[in-house]
């Protein structure tokens, strides 16, 4: 088991997470579009207690929407860091976009593809596709 390092855009938050992840997923839901500024979020699923915050814990803000799971970001630069209910949920999502090292594992599934935007095209990557979440 090895670890990958991650940071936010301003560098205030630094964390590390063990790999391989339990699952690697791209979520195309409406919420992920809003927070990502793009088609959605790419996520590695792991246990919340395995996410190790090295620096900047005080900069991390967690937002709990009315529907769906809590999402955490850097309050200085806005970088999207964790989702899926981190830090309280047992299992959470780590945004692959926040990792600093090349992440070469293939995407296993695209979820919430029913929310695909007209300007979004799914890659021909052989990954599973699910209308909502993976069963
Ligand atoms: Zn930041
Ligand atoms: Zn989503």
Structural features, described:
- There is one protein chain.
- This protein is mainly beta.
- It is built from 1 helix and 11 strands.
- The strands form 2 sheets. It has an 8-stranded mixed beta sheet with strand order 6-7-8-9-4-3-10-11. Strands 1-2-5 form a 3-stranded antiparallel beta sheet, with no helix packed on it.
- A hairpin with a 7-residue loop joins strand 6 and strand 7.
- The chain is globular.
- The site of one zinc ion (ZN) has 9 residues, from loops.
Give the radius of gyration. 14 Å
The 3D shape can be described as: globular
Number of helices: 1
Q: Helix amount, in percent?
A: under 10%
Strand proportion, as a percent range, falls in 35-45%
On the 0 to 100 scale, the average pLDDT is 96
Strand/helix succession: EEEHEEEEEEEE
Strand element count: 11
Low-confidence stretches: none
Q: Measure the end-to-end span.
A: 27 Å
Major beta sheet, strand line-up: 6-7-8-9-4-3-10-11
Largest sheet, described in full? Answer: 8 strands, mixed
Distinct ligands: zinc ion
- Structural classification: mainly beta
